[in-house]
Amino acid sequence: MAVNVDEEACIACGQCEPECPVDAITIEDVAVINDDCIDCGNCIEVCPVDALAL
Fold first, then answer.
1. Structural contact between residues 26 and 17, judged by C-beta atoms closer than 8 angstroms
2. pLDDT in tens, 32-47
3. Residue 52: CB partners within 8 Å, gap ≥ 6?
4. Taking 70 as the threshold, does the pLDDT of residue 1 lie above it?
5. In whole angstroms, what is the distance from residue 54 CA to residue 29 CA?
């Protein structure tokens, strides 16, 4: 299971990307989380619009 992105809420600010220890996040129109995600939650903690959830 990976972190889910609320595509309507995500503003593609990029704050989550550097917090990922396995580089599973890329920023496009919204944050995109790939299968390398380890569900650590670091990205969830820094999202300013609460667009990320387990």
1. yes
2. 999 999 999 999 999 9
3. 3, 4, 5, 6, 10, 16, 31, 43, 44
4. no
5. 20
